Amino acid sequence: MNFRSTSFLKEAFLSNLSIQLAFLLFFSSLLIGTFGYMLVEGYDLLESFYMTVITLSTVGYGEVRPLSDLGRVFTAFYILLNVGIFTYSISVFYSYVLKGEFLTIMNIKQMEKQISRLEGHTIICGFGRHGQEMAEHFERHKTQYVIVDRSEEQLIAKRTEFHKNLLYVVGDATEDEVLEKANIRAAAHLIAALPDDTENLYIVLSARQLCPSLDIVSRYGNPRSEKKLRLAGANKVLMPEQIGGFYMATLISKPGAIDFLSYVSSDELSDIGLEEYAYEDMKEEVRTKSLADMNYATRSGAHVVVYHNPDGTFEINPPGDTRIREKGSIVALGNKAQLEAFKEIVSNN
User: Fold this and answer.
1) Which domain covers residue 74, as residue numbers?
2) Among 91, 141, 247, 308, which one is most buried in terms of CB atoms within 10 A?
3) Domain at 29, CATH number
4) What are the distances in angstroms from CA 112 to CA 10, 97, 106, 132, 191?
5) Pairing verdict, β 329-335 and 189-192
């Protein structure tokens, strides 16, 4: 696997070393000057330190005592040495502060703290076309997520262009340490969206081992990979090309139905939407009621159009006596105001 020869984190580490070196050189210069004047001119410790400070600061105060010829030579070379140290320190300061490295490092540390506090978030592994589309969808729906990708430049550029609070981890998502940085143990979902099936397989294996309860969705390109990904621990697998082909074919055979579903699923074009509510996310008092007892239609205006049974089957337009069972869910249809009112009735989030 090929990585960038230098990443920002590596540059930040080297920048910190440069700053430490600048301070080390400064204090070393103080020691050299102080002990040098003690040896060359026979000054005591206080006189030597004073002479060193006024030489470094170039304030122009008089000498403690007239310098000998050897003392003048030592002072000349000492000044030349400090010109080099001063030049190096200024360049480090410019790189660290004026070029924005300090702020960027602080932003990364703040981002790491934000990721460590997340709970129930989604981890997106891969920030290509599909990963960016997912991120934009989660942004619109205010869903917490973290991106894991190797391309640091792309992540930084997207954070500037797309969302200043974009949370990401730079690294190889097949490595446990990288997934740990994305706070996988507190995550609810993970999407393996890399174009390589083998890498997605490794991600699924690692994620399932680190967090057995995680809901894992994986992309695949080769039909032979589907079974392997499921065996590795993926809850759902899909082939984007297959979905695209099915969608285009259905536009010919059932254009009206597809146009309606596209309209409903579009956040920009439509005020109508679909929202799913799992049994686990419902209020305690709602879990014990039938759909009729909830009286949701009168109170919100939204309609329950699908009941997803725990065994994976679906009931379209479920009857009023339907009760939501554990691991089941319902899908409601309505406009934004109706869905917000419906959420207030059923959801504990």
Assistant:
1) 8-99
2) 308
3) 1.10.287.70
4) 16, 21, 10, 21, 20
5) unpaired
